[in-house]
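Quick review question:
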C-alpha cells in the first residue's frame, strides 16, 4: 500500500506555467468556507498575516490514489506538506501569521486527514470552487476530479502579498513561507 507520508524520489517536478502571476495584490474573496474546526472562516476578513496553503487532495489510508497520480507534476505530497506546516506551526505563529489549509474536498473528507495528522490549524473546504474561481487559482483534472494545483498564498489584511508557486517538494513549502515572513515583516 502507498505510504502517504513519504515522497517517492522520482516524482516529476512541476514547472511554472504562469498561472499564478496575477495573484499578488489581489484581495482575498469575502467567502465563508466550512472548516475542520466545525466553524466557518472568511479568509477575506482575516486581519494580519494569513498563510493559505492550497493543495490538490490528501490520500486516505488503505485507499488507492488515482491512477497516474505520481506522474502528474506537483500532485503527490499533500500529506507531507500538511505535516510540515503542522511541524512549523508554532514558528509561523511566532512570525505573526495564522495558517490554514485549503482544498476542494468536503469538510468530512478533510476531517479524517486533520484528525489523523493532528493538525493544529483549520483546513477549509472549497467544495463549490468559490475561492478558486474568485482568484482564478490554477487547477488540473485527475480521475474526473478538478483539483487545485499546489499553491501557497501569503496575505496581509486580506490582500495577497506573496505567492509560492510551483512548490516542490511539497514539504519544503513552510521553509519558503518562514523565509518570506522573516525577510518581509508586516
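Suggested answer, residue by residue:
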Amino acid at each position: 500500500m502507498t505510504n502517504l507520508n513519504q515522497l517517492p524520489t522520482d516524482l516529476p517536478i512541476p514547472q511554472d506555467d504562469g498561472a499564478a502571476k496575477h495573484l499578488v495584490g489581489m484581495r482575498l474573496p469575502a467567502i465563508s468556507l466550512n472548516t475542520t474546526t466545525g466553524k466557518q472562516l472568511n479568509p477575506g476578513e482575516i486581519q494580519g498575516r494569513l498563510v493559505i496553503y492550497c493543495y490538490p487532495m490528501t490520500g486516505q489510508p488503505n485507499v488507492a490514489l488515482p491512477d497516474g497520480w505520481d506522474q502528474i507534476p506537483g500532485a503527490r505530497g499533500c500529506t507531507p506538506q500538511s505535516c510540515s506546516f503542522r511541524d512549523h506551526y508554532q514558528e509561523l505563529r511566532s512570525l505573526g501569521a495564522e495558517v490554514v489549509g485549503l482544498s476542494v474536498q468536503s469538510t468530512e473528507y478533510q476531517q479524517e486527514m486533520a484528525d489523523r495528522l493532528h493538525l493544529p490549524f483549520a483546513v477549509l473546504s472549497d467544495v463549490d470552487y468559490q475561492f478558486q474561481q474568485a482568484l482564478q487559482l490554477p487547477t488540473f483534472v485527475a480521475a474526473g476530479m478538478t483539483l487545485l494545483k499546489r499553491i501557497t498564498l501569503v496575505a496581509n489584511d486580506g490582500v495577497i502579498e506573496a505567492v509560492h508557486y510551483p512548490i516542490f517538494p511539497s514539504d519544503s513549502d513552510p521553509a519558503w513561507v518562514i523565509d518570506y515572513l522573516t525577510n518581509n515583516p508586516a
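Why it works: DSSP finds five helices and nine strands in the chain. The longest helix spans residues 107-117.
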